[in-house]
Amino acid sequence: MIHEVDEVLGNLLRGGALKESRVEVSFEAPTRDWAARRNAPTVNAYLYDIREDVARRQRGQLPVRDEHDVVVRRRQPPRWFRLSYLLTAWTKIPQDEHRLLSAVLATLLPREVLPPGELPGSLGALGLSVPLSVAGVQTESRSLADIWSALGGELKPSLDLVVTAPFPAFPEYDAGPPVTEGTTVRVRTVDGTPAEASERSHRPRQVAAVRAARKAAAATRRKGLR
Predict the structure, then answer these.
(1) pTM of the prediction?
(2) How many CB atoms are closer than 10 A to CB 133?
(3) What is the domain partition of the chain in residue ranges?
(4) Each residue's pLDDT tens digit, 181-194
(5) For the purposes of burial, counting CB atoms within 10 Å of the CB of 214, is it exposed (0-12), middle (13-18) or buried (19 or more)?
């Protein structure tokens, strides 16, 4: 899941206001050695913190439906994690770095929510939107000064980006087949012998109504896709 978020973020940074520019995008740690090797304008997105967003944790199971809207499997709700990135710009002139950071802001601010259609792999398969927050109030326990100190570099202007992404829970469970038959009632006398007209089969009307509603909904969706 984390590498898929990296892919989405890389595509966002390379597009938008930085489209058709020669600015590189890097996910390496911006250490002194890395800065010394850099020879082109670069936007660095360093993932410095990963932790679960416990406020989004859910209980129970979620149904997985097929094309006929029938529940075929069940799965646990995904766990949501906050991925915190430190965005910095690297050029030879401070004013150019500020222009790059401004371009990054112009690119990310309109994208507060990433729809499932723009997400790759298992991240997009979940069908959930991913919220994105840039330059907000820092809520992680690590301060930026501590991060730069750990990297061995000098403090630079930076943007704090938080992507809250779902991580699929495993495993999935097969669901039982839908109920298609009614109940059967058998009656016996006190001595255990079957009573006359003792067996009666009943197909509940609500079962038939549910099945008819599912078929109608599936037919409506197919017409809409055409």
Answers:
(1) 0.69
(2) 17
(3) 2-174, 183-225
(4) 667 777 777 776 66
(5) middle
